[in-house]
Amino acid sequence: MPSQTVQWFPGHMAKTRRVMKECLSQVDISIEILDARIPASSKNPEIKKILGQKPILTLLSKSSMADSASTKLWVEYYREKGYPCLAVDSVTGEGFRDIYPYIQTLLEEKIQRYQSKGMTGRRLRAMVVGIPNVGKSTLINKMAGAKKAKAENRPGVTTIKQWVSTDMGLDLLDMPGVLWPKFEDKITGENLAITGAIKDDILDIEEIAMILCDRLRCYYPALLTERYRVSADEQQSLDAYDLFQQIGKNRGFLMAGGRVDEQRTARTLLEEFRNIKIGRITLERPNP
Predict the structure, then answer these.
(1) Domain 204-274, what fold?
(2) How far apart are CA 143 and CA 136, in angstroms?
(3) What value does the mean pLDDT of the chain take?
(4) What is each CA distance from 18 to 21, 22, 26, 68, 150, in whole angstroms?
(5) Binning pLDDT at 50, 70 and 90, where does residue 9 land?
(6) Distant-in-sequence contacts of 70-75, Cβ < 8 A, 24+ apart
(7) What is the DSSP annotation of the chain?
(8) Looking at the chain, which residues constitute the CATH 3.40.50.300 domain(s)?
């Protein structure tokens, strides 16, 4: 299981951090995108250090994939911590109408200074940052009203910075996704792996899928029963490996001799989680 290591990080991460610092003088605000399914694990602790005193708006993306009650708790949590925060979703459009007014409020003093210098209507500029596969490019395309930023449901697609204009008086600088060199704990790495922020082909996906089983029986036992027909008793009595095996058996993923096809079971679990076929799920809760 991935934990405190740097071996899976692409080599461009150090370069991205340097470019972010170089571009700070070109923007008025930074927009940090977090994954609403893992609002703590997807928050890069180095971002604040890189951005310094630059205002930051935190957006919890993919909110239609997350548990709405948990998302509400996370928005409140970040606001109480002093991070202006909104829940947004590029598919449903949730929260998008609030982004620009929120930015205007955060930059009220700066806008007033522009106006006092006769720069009324000056376009604002925002740097969009976040980890790989958090939905930055999709969100930017939604804000721009066109497919201007390359976006796919896998990490590492955006590899260079790119400016994108919107009709709301805001220019967006899309930065490559950046992970940090050392995780605080194993759970962070696990959550990033489950959601696809770390590439599957460099992970033990069977182990990742077993960890997902544990998360599901902890937070969403009813969804686990509904989708994979594992009873409450089985969820309580089986360890993670046997629960994973039971799901494979129930889905009929068997090979010669009745052995469970673990690779197929693991890929199915991860794909169905990521495609919301199990349900709307948030893998972590705010600490009080």
Answers:
(1) Conserved Hypothetical Protein Ylqf; Chain: A; domain 2 (1.10.1580)
(2) 11
(3) 88
(4) 5, 6, 14, 36, 22
(5) very low
(6) 70/282, 70/285, 71/36, 71/39, 71/282, 73/285, 73/286, 74/36, 74/39, 74/282, 74/286
(7) ---S--TTS-TTHHHHHHHHHHHGGG-SEEEEEEETTSTTTT--HHHHHHHTTS-EEEEEE-GGGS-HHHHHHHHHHHHHTT--EEE--TTT-TTHHHHHHHHHHHTHHHHHHHHHTT-TTPPEEEEEEE-TTSSHHHHHHHHHTS--S---SSTT---S-EEEE-TTSEEEEE------SS-SSHHHHHHHHHHTSS-GGGS-HHHHHHHHHHHHHHH-HHHHHHHH---HHHHHHS-HHHHHHHHHHHTT-B-GGG-B-HHHHHHHHHHHHHTTSS----------
(8) 13-174
In CATH, the architecture of 13-174 is: 3-Layer(aba) Sandwich (3.40)
- For residue 96, CA distances in Å to 40, 206, 224, 280 come to 22, 37, 32, 20
CATH 1.10.1580.10 positions along the chain are 204-274
pLDDT band, residue 52 (cuts 50/70/90): confident
Hey, what are 75's tokens? Answer: 């928005």
Distance CA 274, CA 58 (A): 22
- Cβ–Cβ < 8 Å for 55, 82: no
Residues 198 and 7: their CA atoms lie apart, in Å, by: 11
pLDDT of residue 119: 77
Tokens of 98: 């609030």
